[in-house]
Amino acid sequence: MNIAEQYEMYRPLLFSIAYRLLGSVSDAEDIVQETFVAWTERDGDRSVTNTKSYLCRIASNLCADRIRKQTKQRETYIGPWLPDPLVEGRGGPEDICIRRDTISTAYLLLLLQLSEVERIIFVLREAFGFSYEEIAALTGKSVANCRQIFHRARRGMPRSTEEETPTSTQTVRAHQIVRQFMQSFESGDISRVMELLTADVSLIMDGGGKVKAALNPILTMERVIAFFTGTASKLPEGMVYHHATVNGLPGFLFMIGETVHYVLSMELEGNRISRFYMTVNPDKLAHLNMAKTSPS
């Protein structure tokens, strides 16, 4: 198998690992490219007996370096930081991530609590099902150490993502609820809007200092509704929204023509929306505007 064929075969896996570790589409794509540059330099090396393992090891090491850089960058980041939104059906790398439950915004934000080593071991085990023997080979640590690090990281995370994965019926219902929210808001039915929100609903907005955005999470139902009401009156002419699935969550793309300006996604508790994630930083939307649009 030549390099081009290996690239097509392993790119989805490498991108999926890197995105979960970094929360950045551009960084994940860079990791894939850098991994194959390194692999090309080793082409023909018979000491490499497992190409997949070798590529994952290179990618993981590259990600560890990026994680350390990102940690320093976030210390000076303006306002809340959210991972780049992945929107299904836009023909980009978002369509090749493997498990929806491990690309949710909440999940990716929780991963930030882990060190680079903990994050790599946790993601390889939790999201991709690598054995401890495989992870040990990738990280250069012992099997026992990998197992210990995983369980330590697991204690800092919520219950198993397998248990939290919504059923198809729950997913359909969640999308129905967010559509009802938008329709009720547009029609001015605030009482119905309030019925669809939890009392402690919050909004996290990522502008990165590039555009005007709330610098702190907006808390409580009253303040969130006030924010959306104020924002709706200031939307640019020609702005329309399209329903979408964002990081496995129901949401919307706000667009002018073919350009995405805002991405909004929503977490639910039961039949009510408990959290909004809004990305307006144009740098984090660039990959969506380079992909072909197929909004619903």
UniProtKB/TrEMBL annotation:
It comes from the Bacteria. Transmembrane segments: none annotated. Residues 107-155 form the RNA polymerase sigma factor 70 region 4 type domain. One of its GO terms (biological process) is DNA-templated transcription initiation. GO terms for molecular function: DNA binding; sigma factor activity. InterPro entries: ECF_Sigma-70_Domain, NTF2-like_dom_sf, RNA_pol_sigma-70_dom, RNA_pol_sigma-70_ECF, RNA_pol_sigma70_r2, RNA_pol_sigma70_r4_t2, RNA_pol_sigma_r2, RNA_pol_sigma_r3/r4-like. Residues 7-72 form the RNA polymerase sigma-70 region domain. Pfam families: Sigma70_r2, Sigma70_r4_2. Interacts transiently with the RNA polymerase catalytic core formed by RpoA, RpoB, RpoC and RpoZ (2 alpha, 1 beta, 1 beta' and 1 omega subunit) to form the RNA polymerase holoenzyme that can initiate transcription. This is RNA polymerase sigma factor SigJ. It comes from Brevibacillus formosus. The lineage of its organism: Bacteria, Bacillati, Bacillota, Bacilli, Bacillales.
